[in-house]
C-alpha cells in the first residue's frame, strides 16, 4: 500500500512513526562521540550518576577506570591528526574488546582519555579489565606509526569514596600516578 492509497488516519500514523524513529535516532546520536562511536562525556556523566543511584539502592560495587593514551600529543605532532584519529578509533575498538556486559559503559572522556564504568565489579575484576585494556592497546598497530601505542590506567572503586566527583578524582589521581610511574601501567 503506497501513501496515495492510505487513509488520512493511516498516513498520520505512518508519519508519526517516522517522526518517532527520527527522534530515537537523534537521541542515540546525541549520546555518542562522533569519532569513536563510544558514549560521549555527557552520557558518561549520566550513566555514572545512574549507576551511583543503584549503589545507593543496594547494588554491588562500582569500578571506574580512566584510560589515557600515552604520548598522544607526540603522535599527533609527528604523524598528523588523521593518524591521531586512527589511533583514537583503534583504542576505542580495543576497549570494546575488554568490556562485554550490556551494563558496562565505555566513553570518550575527553581528548585522548577514555572512561570505563563497570557496575557490579569488585576491585579484582576491575584490575583484570585494566590490565586487559593495556594488553589490547599494546597490540594496536597503525600503518606508518613506528612507536607502540600504550595506555596508562587509573582504577577507583565506589567503596573508597562517597560521591561520583570523588570517584572521578580518585581515578584521575591514580591515572596520573600511572603516568608518573613511567606510563603503560595500571594504578589502583
What order do the helices and strands come in, and which of them pair?
Blueprint: H1 8-30, H2 41-56, E1 62-69, H3 72-79, H4 81-98, E2 105-110, E3 113-119, H5 123-138, E4 151-157, H6 164-180, E5 186-187
Parallel strand pairs: 4-5
Antiparallel strand pairs: 1-3, 1-4, 2-3
Helix pairs in contact: 3-4, 4-5
Keywords:
five-stranded mixed beta sheet; alpha+beta; single chain; 188 residues
What can you tell me about this protein's structure?
- The termini are far apart.
- A hairpin with a 2-residue loop joins strand 2 and strand 3.
- This protein is α+β, with helices and mostly antiparallel strands.
Q: What count of helical segments does DSSP give?
A: 6
Largest sheet: 5 strands, mixed
Give helix % range.
Answer: 40-55%
Q: Enumerate the spans where pLDDT stays under 50 for 5 or more consecutive residues.
A: none
Give the end-to-end Cα distance, rounded to a whole number of Å: 61 Å
Beta-strand residue fraction: 15-25%
Mean pLDDT: 93
* Shape, principal axes of CA atoms: flat
Tell me the series of helices and strands, N- to C-terminal. HHEHHEEHEHE
Order of neighbouring strands in the sheet with most strands: 2-3-1-4-5
Class from secondary-structure proportions: alpha+beta
Short account of what is shown:
By secondary structure, the protein is an alpha+beta fold.
